[in-house]
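PROTEIN DESIGN WORKSHEET
SECTION A - STRUCTURE
LENGTH: 354
TOKENS:
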């Protein structure tokens, strides 16, 4: 297996010792000092997943999730980030046909339920491996589906359960909207304040600003497989290049580290999803995981888009302060006397007492 060197003369790299359907390439960015516990060091080791989901298979999805968590923990990772709808895989068929009842029913049956034995397995895995997990998944709430994320701390606490505020275009044939409680998307963890958004939520200026104002140290940008732009009339903003530009811009605007985590799709996945003749996710690839520093620079090298791996980096907290010396759109570089954001962050129940 070829090894890809990260952007550091001090870099080291590893081959995975654990098998997660295939060997994983580890990309590790080190500074000059050796890694220390965050209680005595400003360095935090994080991992962004680039891997193929176990399409439409909840049990296999949970197994692979736990294997990746264990693999990351074996490399002293303190936080691992998973892509959008990692469980049970992004419903790629929606960009090929608006209705597919067979796959839709299978998708509901294999989506993740809060409080289920499947979620409990992931929670226990986080505890046993002493690692924080930012999980992207399709949430099944009594048969209604939502594009969801949550933070599972290294003590097993589920924090910031949230749903995508507005599914994008064809996603609305499968998923519902959130209510205001999903705006609480940044929480304290053992590695600092961690937040998350999904996919094209990174286009929404008001949502982004509300998230910035919650003062993230680390932001997880969760994406499905994203392929390079074709050069044709298809939207550049939906391409690998466009989606990466959104995550990089988020890093610059928020002065936070951004973990850009993506799925990928293989020939097997294309067959399962029935997308060979569709407009998106119709060829193998789509992996584009990366980690961005608070000034927007990419601090990891890329894996081939068809290759599974963990992108691992050591983050130095002072990089956040260095950028905020220059710009803080929620602080000294703002004019709340001129411009401000109004928010309704209350949950809205379907049945309420007057």
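SECTION B - SEQUENCE
RESIDUE ASSIGNMENT:
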């Amino acid at each position: 297996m070829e090894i890809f060197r990260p952007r550091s003369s001090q870099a080291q790299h590893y081959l995975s010792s654990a098998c997660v359907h295939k060997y994983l390439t580890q990309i590790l960015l080190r500074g000059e000092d050796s890694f220390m516990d965050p209680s005595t060091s400003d360095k935090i080791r994080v991992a962004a997943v680039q891997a193929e989901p176990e399409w439409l298979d909840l049990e296999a999805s949970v197994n692979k999730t736990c294997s990746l968590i264990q693999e990351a923990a074996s490399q002293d990772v303190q936080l691992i980030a998973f892509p959008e709808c990692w469980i049970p895989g992004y419903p790629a068929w929606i960009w090929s046909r608006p209705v597919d009842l067979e796959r839709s029913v299978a998708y509901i049956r294999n989506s993740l339920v809060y409080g289920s034995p499947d979620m409990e397995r992931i929670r226990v895995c986080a505890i046993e491996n002493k690692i924080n997990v930012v999980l992207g998944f399709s949430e099944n709430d009594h048969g209604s589906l939502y594009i969801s994320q949550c933070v599972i701390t290294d003590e097993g606490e589920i924090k910031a359960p949230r749903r995508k505020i507005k599914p994008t275009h064809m996603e609305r044939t499968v998923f519902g909207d959130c209510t205001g409680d999903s705006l609480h998307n940044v929480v304290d963890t053992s590695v600092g304040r961690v937040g998350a958004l999904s996919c094209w939520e990174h286009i929404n200026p008001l949502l982004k600003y509300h998230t910035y104002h919650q003062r993230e140290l680390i932001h997880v940008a969760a994406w499905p497989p994203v392929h390079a732009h074709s050069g044709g009339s298809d939207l550049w903003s939906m391409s690998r290049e466009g989606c990466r530009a959104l995550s990089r811009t988020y890093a610059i605007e928020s002065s936070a580290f951004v973990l850009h985590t993506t799925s990928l799709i293989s020939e097997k996945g294309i067959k399962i999803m029935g997308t060979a003749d569709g407009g998106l996710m119709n060829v193998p690839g789509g992996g584009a995981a990366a980690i961005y520093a608070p000034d927007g620079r990419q601090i990891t090298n890329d894996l081939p888009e068809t290759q599974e791996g963990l992108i691992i980096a050591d983050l130095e907290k002072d990089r956040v302060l260095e950028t905020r010396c220059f710009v803080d759109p929620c602080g000294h570089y703002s004019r709340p006397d001129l411009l401000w954001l109004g928010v309704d962050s209350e949950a809205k129940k379907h049945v309420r007492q007057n």
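SECTION C - NOTES
Residues 181 and 347 are 5 Å apart (CA to CA).
The radius of gyration is 19 Å.
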